[in-house]
TrEMBL record:
Positions of transmembrane segments: none
Residues of the signal peptide: 1-24
Family statement: Belongs to the UPF0065 (bug) family.
Keywords, sorted A to Z: Signal
Pfam family, one: TctC
Name this protein carries in UniProt: Tripartite tricarboxylate transporter substrate binding protein
Amino acid sequence: MKTSFSKTLLVIGTTTLISGPALADYPERPIEMIIAYSAGGGTDIAARTLVPYLEEHLGTDITVVNRPGAGGEVGFTELAKAKPDGYTIGFINTPNVITIPIERETRYEIDDFAPIASVVDDPAGFNVHPESQFKTLDDLIEHAKANPNDISYGTTGVGSDDHLAALALERQADIKMTHVPFPGSADVRQALMGQHIDLGIFNMGEAASDAKAGRVRTLAQGAEKRWEKAPDVPTLKEQGYDLVIGSNRGIAAPAGVPEDRINKLSQAVAKAMQEEDFQAAADKQALPLYYQNPQDYQKTLNTAQERFQALWEESPWSEQ
């Protein structure tokens, strides 16, 4: 099981002690939070669930502003180019925030952000229909080796975390499958339950209700350790594949925001996430909460950047 949330809060004590008049005055006015996706989506819901608790611990209002478009690029660009004063923050989502600049020329790079805190880390889930012939991941891999491109798998599109998870597994297992992209995870789930595809790859949080109801069977999860709400699903690493992948949703600011303000924001996020009411709301949404302080979150982003850059150089996903 992934390190418990209560344990991750211990890192707060290691952050820089905050003092001085500059921090005492911050924040003096409302903060704007940019969401790079449409209202009602997973990131938007997570953000709006967190905001009331974050407002309480910061002592100011937070206005959520949706800036969807180009897979997140529009919102990410606006956040990166905002004034670095701590009054504009936003959610950044991996892999998109990292893979978009790898795929094409953009007006931002990952270094244009100052990480504040990781909030959600939703591992990739490899799911089949309950009546599927594949009872384990080994069954699926064995069939794919003997029958190249015979297995069809659905994802939320080229370059999504689901698609990249499949490509990474193909590379490590030395198999080839047939990709079927869909507009969203709901479409993938529907196609899987209708047995129109053999394998549906979508995040564990998105699979939780279907798995509990017996509508899908999850063969593997892309977490470092088993998610506490899916303790019976083995990780890819447990099954011999050095692969940790999913969708991380965290909060960042434009690069250049003073460190004391970043730390105050990060500590406020940690305290908000510790609130029982927030945790209950997140539990209803099956959100795998995972707090990281700015330093650890930066390491996570750096590791992802290296992995996705290497994957692109070896096998550009836009061509698959």
